[in-house]
Amino acid sequence: MALRKLRNKMRKLSPWVYVLHTGGCNGCDIEIPCIFTPRYCVERFGIKLVSSPRFADVLLITGPVCTQAVPFALRVYNQVPDPKVVVSIGSCASTGGVYKVEEGASNYAVAGPSPNIFPVDVFVPGCPPKPEAIIQGILLAI
Question: Is residue 10 part of a domain?
Fold first, then answer.
């Protein structure tokens, strides 16, 4: 019991994030590395970027979910251990942005925004969002 309390406390104090790009223009993917530079330095909050979803506490999703990326995105989502937090970065990941498929229309390439595929806890608006907004979204998720 004490070990579980300690683990949950550490997840709040030192969250590890994994970035999942599911399509789009890469505008948000360019802004995410900026938060790890000395100017913004999110490591002061204990936030660390990891290269495997199996070590992540927070999943950052960028871009609309392309049809070919759906199985990969679900596999990555399932690899993140519970309790996991999903943050949708940018307009495309949140609502579909310029890749949005209208009601009654179909698009063979885009499955839709990330909330159509899996549950999202925090939305960070913008196209692309500023690094300050991304940091605020991650801290809100924690």
Answer: no
Structure tokens at 34: 């900026």
- Number of independent structural domains in the chain: 1
Q: For residues 139 and 100, which has the higher predicted lDDT (pLDDT)?
A: 139
pLDDT tens, position by position, 73-127: 889 998 888 888 899 988 888 887 777 766 655 677 787 788 888 888 888 888 8
List, as own/partner pairs, every contact residues 97-100 make where C-beta atoms lie below 8 angstroms and the sequence separation is at least 24, other chains included. Answer: 97/24, 97/64, 97/127, 99/23, 99/24, 99/64, 100/64
Give the whole-angstrom CA distance, residue 101 versus residue 96: 7
Task: Please provide residue 109's backbone torsions phi and psi, each rounded to the nearest 5 degrees.
Answer: -95, -25
The C-alpha atoms of residue 142 and residue 90 are separated, in whole angstroms, by 18
* Cβ pair 23, 73 in contact under 8 A: no
pTM of the full structure: 0.82
Question: For residues 59 and 76, is the Cβ–Cβ distance under 8 A?
Answer: yes
Domain holding 33, by residue range, is 15-136
Q: Please state, in angstroms and as integers, the Cα–Cα distance from residue 63 to each residue in 4, 42, 102, 104, following that order.
A: 34, 22, 17, 22
Q: Tell me if 75 sits within 8 A of 53, measured CB to CB.
A: no
